[in-house]
Amino acid sequence: MEQYIEFSQEVTTAKQQGKPIVALESTIISHGMPYPQNVKMAKTVEDIIRKEGAIPATIAIIDGKIKIGLEEDELELLASSSEVIKVSRRDLAETIATNRIGATTVASTMICAELAGIQFFVTGGIGGVHQGVEHTMDISADLEELAQTNVTVICSGAKSILDLPKTMEYLETKGVPVIGYQTAELPAFFTRESGIKLNSTAADVHSIANICHTKNTLKLSGGIVVANPVPTEHALDKDYINNIISQAVKQAEEQGVTGKDSTPFLLKYIVEQTNGKSLETNIKLVENNAFVGAQIAVAFNKL
Ligand code: PSU
Ligand code: MN
């Protein structure tokens, strides 16, 4: 298996020195945000993680290898090339075997992080059960991955392009803990509230590190979602953004967008319709997740 995994120099050194490492996905770069804001976000987020005392490992598929930690030119490639494939669990083996450039989603980043021995992973939002699932059966592979792969995902919940109550039911069925970081409510990405009460709330990063450690000791499989709300000053007005999201979902339906194209279509539409306001919020919340995620990884490393 080692033949398919390549660590960057920075991550190799971190592993040797037993430093805390935080994984980052690359679909958020290639299919989640426009260029050049995406590459700037990717670098800033890495720096935030370093500043908190952990080492960032952005994950992608390049030259037939799973890259754990990217160099600057590789980040630039992922951010700007139109050849980049969105790689979820289904696409992983094929993208490696055919030597194509692949950006990893939450699901495939979790797989690669676990293979690389990394337990913490920071992103913006997870995929989930889509609105209209009763007609489309569109449920992100991210949820099945959370059901089976032992990686803790620090995010801001999920966008309401998804059916959030159904997404939460799915996670409950699969036994995935969803822990609110200093909140009792599931954040809805652009907003701090969704109206959905959570079962677990953690007051600090040490409590979260402890839960992760206990779960490991019990050998309970599957991931953990840490839901960290967007900072108040960057949150968008609920009615404003939900109105645009409804339009996005309607457009996708009318244009017959399905499968893996669905989420990138919705994200792009929202950025356009908000004149980039949503992008600004998106970047700020990812930065804040990096800040908290790195602190969790550092706390866990001391246990
Ligand atoms: N949600 C966002 N931004 C993103 C994604 C989701 O707000 O960039 C990306 C993530 O990589 C996530 C993927 O894992 O979309 C989910 O795609 P799908 O619904 O096709 O599984
Ligand atoms: Mn889907």
UniProtKB/TrEMBL annotation:
Keyword Manganese: yes
Top EC group: lyase
Catalytic residues identified in the record: E25 (proton donor), K159 (nucleophile)
UniProt: substrate binding residues: K86, V106, S140, A141, D142
Record's keyword terms, sorted: Glycosidase, Hydrolase, Lyase, Manganese, Metal-binding
Cofactor note text: Binds 1 Mn(2+) ion per subunit.
Binding of Mn(2+), residues: D138
Keyword Iron: no
Molecular function terms, GO-annotated: hydrolase activity, acting on glycosyl bonds
Catalytic activity: D-ribose 5-phosphate + uracil = psi-UMP + H2O
Record-linked InterPro entries: Indigdn_synthA-like (IPR022830), PsuG (IPR007342)
Superkingdom: Bacteria
Known EC number: 4.2.1.70
Required cofactor names: Mn(2+)
HAMAP family hit by this protein: PsiMP_glycosidase (MF_01876)
Family per similarity comment: Belongs to the pseudouridine-5'-phosphate glycosidase family.
Protein's job: Catalyzes the reversible cleavage of pseudouridine 5'-phosphate (PsiMP) to ribose 5-phosphate and uracil. Functions biologically in the cleavage direction, as part of a pseudouridine degradation pathway.
Subunit field text: Homotrimer.
Name listed for the protein in its UniProt record: Pseudouridine-5'-phosphate glycosidase
Gene that this polypeptide is encoded by: psuG
